[in-house]
Amino acid sequence: MSIVRNRGALPAVDSPVSSSLIVIAEEAELRSDIVAVLGDAGRMPEAIGRPEALSEYEVGAATIVIFACDVDRPPHMTALRRLRRENRDTAIVVISPRATATAVRRTLDAGADALVFEPEIEAALVISVHGVERGQSVVPRNLRAGVERPYLSHRERQVLTLVCDGRTNAEIAEALVLAESTIKSHMASIFTKLGVHSRKEASAVFLDLNPVVGKKADPELEEMQA
Fold this sequence. Notes:
Elements: E1 2-6, E2 20-24, H1 28-40, E3 46-48, E4 63-68, H2 74-86, E5 91-96, H3 101-109, E6 114-117, H4 121-133, E7 136-139, H5 154-164, H6 169-176, H7 180-194, H8 199-209, H9 219-225
Helix pairs in contact: 1-4, 5-7, 5-8, 6-7, 7-8
């Protein structure tokens, strides 16, 4: 595993009392495996099948949620983003089948503090939880290069801002005074850089990286549309 950045330590990590752990895993066998690994390390988590059940627990800054999902599946990434929005002060450790470096970056951008692949649960989960408790973000070592955020050109950012506004390619082309084929080319480049497959995914990742988009207009874009 590799520590990639400091997220700010959870409260009271130096005290004898550890953070409370809540495991969310829809598959009963996987849920049982996660609980067993943590139990062997002396940690006794709560375990639930779906994120919606988290509302029954007191969750805060001293809680770590261990969320099993597939980071290469868009609906699961949507669930992760929702989990982060609804629990902003809570650390999240994601357990997923093996994924690409792009997916690792996308997972962190969606709100995870650590990522552990399913085949590595026994070796890496407890270490990752300890790292998160001490304010670190943790990812598989061989994929740490994928954590770097993608560089988008100024034009690509303009296009994505308008995509987030719900514009079609034709509408974006008109707003930016470009050919629609040029917009399609920009979109293809954006999909590749962000590691996504749809406009909805691209918008979600862009908003994760740029939360002020939609709250404050781009002055240059406004000038071009004037």
